[in-house]
Amino acid sequence: MFTVLSLFDGISGAKVALNNLSIPCHYYASEIDKYALEISRKNYPEIVQLGDIKTLDTSSLPKINLLIGGSPCTSLSCAKRQKESGLVKGESVLFWEYVRILKEVKPDYFLLENVASMKPCDKEKISEVLGVTPIMINSALLTAQNRKRLYWTNILGVKQPEDRGIILKDILEKEVPKKYILSGREIDYMHRKTTRGRSHFDFYCDNSDENEKSWPVTRNFHKSVPYNVIKVGILKGLADGKKGNIIFSPEGKSCCITGNSGGRKKHCIELSFRWRRCQNRSL
Questions:
Q1: What is the pLDDT of residues 146-194, one digit of tens each?
Q2: Phi and psi of 169, rounded to 5°?
Q3: Do 126 and 93 belong together in one domain?
């Protein structure tokens, strides 16, 4: 039986992948986010949860065949880039906990994932420490979302997957419960004229080529309006010309989900379809 240790496990997406590959395994996980743990425990109660990676004691673990993890990218990503290397300051220093555990458990195979937009010096440092160079894979080949990530692994034969041609409309639901539909008051707000004489829809939306790529859909829309509404078209950048929370047409790819919009109501957009929820997630 294969034994897996998943660090920064989230909702146990690695377990989904292993199941899809028909690889039975004993699965150990390290995660601290209470919402991610709630989903993981609901879907996979058999997973052995080990808690915080910073206090994880590997001495009692069995032989690990596969060590897997995606250490935090928050201080490595261009979205929140620091003057210093992201490996010496911020949440991304948890990479070194991955390295500690890698050295302690000495797995047969390892896999580390992180953001592709990191500085070259950080990419080179990770490669030096792990002894392998990464492969960049865009999840758009397998999903409806653009998500470029770097993968470091000693597993042989890893290559670019074939494009499955999945686009956004393939994963959206047309039947929407009434509680997710914008109220008349919210629609009135979006049509209200601004000081420049434009409505909020006009100010942020551009119905141009539906085959363009988008910028991130934010996870915090639901703080002020239903989180699962999208515009059939393109959402333009902010007033200062910077690229903002741009949303893509269902005829193409979405971009990666981010969590920094702050739920500003002015980013509300027209209802089309809603996002398919995470597997078995109860919201």
A1: 889 999 999 999 999 999 988 877 877 777 787 767 777 877 777 777 7
A2: -65, -20
A3: yes
Distance CA 214, CA 80 (A): 19
From 153, 178, 212, give the residue that closes a domain: 153
> Both tokens of residue 273?
């379809």
Residue span of the structural domain in which 173 resides: 167-283
89, 20: one domain: yes
The domain boundary, picked from 126, 153, 180, lies at 153
Confidence (pTM): 0.71
Active-site residue numbers? 73
- H/E segment holding residue 50: none
Whether residue 147 sits in one domain with residue 10: yes
Tens digit of each residue's pLDDT (9 = 90 or more) over 96-141 = 999 999 999 999 999 999 999 999 999 999 999 999 999 999 998 9
Alpha helix (H) residue ranges in the chain: 13-20, 34-43, 95-105, 120-130, 184-191, 200-204
Please state the separation of Cα 49 from the chain's center in Å.
Answer: 21
**Measured distance CA(68)–CA(7) in Å, rounded:** 6
